[in-house]
Amino acid sequence: MNDTLHMNGTTHVNAAAQPRRSAAVPMAMTETGQPAGAAPQAGSAAHRSAPVPLHGAAAAQPTTDSTTPSTPEAVARTDGRHAPIGALVYFSSASENTARFVASCRLDEVGVNVYRIPLKPGAAQLNVREPYVLMVPTYGGGDAKKAVPVQVKRFLNNPANRAWIRGVIASGNTNFGTAYCAAGDIIAAKCRVPYLYRFELMGTREDTRKVRDGIVRFFSERRG
Ligand SMILES: Cc1cc2nc3c(=O)[nH]c(=O)nc-3n(C[C@H](O)[C@H](O)[C@H](O)COP(=O)(O)O)c2cc1C
């Protein structure tokens, strides 16, 4: 498995605590349509190493959004002294592999809010209004149109949610060959954010350590 860690925080994102203008994302992510962004193939050289350039700091603008943000599933422990350093937003299906991985990272203990995108269609929409890294399992069995779960597409189709995405982490199963973790390629291309990491199923202890440390570093290096 190629588990190249792209969370060195040197080149990718200006993650100032402002939403990015939604116009930076040229195409709405549809629930059925093929994304028009030319996503690199999973496992390709581009996937492994190329940072995805943003449209620049000039794209950062406050919005007039008055939606009440959702409450995190796990609230960052900051002892009341600091603001959270950032957030992780994740989706996990009924098999809960990603949920177990997220729990093992214990991100709330290192100052990161954790939000979960609801599984059930009737659930209240998740509204996130702080910089976040999105973690998404890949589905579709090799069909790129279905690689990103519908629930994640719905979440990102809300421009106010999309404005705060700063990076993506994907999971999958290497049995799917070139479609391994393809959801990360698609989201990175569409949202113009770096593809930070990928892992298989519930991840290893090393994956847990890298993601936990990497997310802290990713957000900390972008403060101020
Ligand atoms: C129907 C189905 C299709 C899948 N398609 C892919 C795929 O195209 N690429 C991939 O890397 N993993 C694929 N997977 C594997 C899932 O991404 C993996 O099991 C993941 O850990 C599921 O996370 P979750 O339990 O949090 O939903 C698929 C799994 C299922 C059940």
From TrEMBL:
<feature type="compositionally biased region" description="Polar residues">
    <location>
        <begin position="1"/>
        <end position="13"/>
    </location>
</feature>
<comment type="similarity">
    <text>Belongs to the NrdI family.</text>
</comment>
<feature type="region of interest" description="Disordered">
    <location>
        <begin position="1"/>
        <end position="27"/>
    </location>
</feature>
<comment type="function">
    <text>Probably involved in ribonucleotide reductase function.</text>
</comment>
<feature type="compositionally biased region" description="Low complexity">
    <location>
        <begin position="57"/>
        <end position="74"/>
    </location>
</feature>
<dbReference type="Pfam" id="PF07972">
    <property type="entry name" value="Flavodoxin_NdrI"/>
</dbReference>
<dbReference type="InterPro" id="IPR020852">
    <property type="entry name" value="RNR_Ib_NrdI_bac"/>
</dbReference>
<dbReference type="InterPro" id="IPR004465">
    <property type="entry name" value="RNR_NrdI"/>
</dbReference>
<feature type="region of interest" description="Disordered">
    <location>
        <begin position="55"/>
        <end position="77"/>
    </location>
</feature>
<dbReference type="InterPro" id="IPR029039">
    <property type="entry name" value="Flavoprotein-like_sf"/>
</dbReference>
<protein>
    <recommendedName>
        <fullName>Protein NrdI</fullName>
    </recommendedName>
</protein>
<dbReference type="GO" id="GO:0010181">
    <property type="term" value="F:FMN binding"/>
</dbReference>
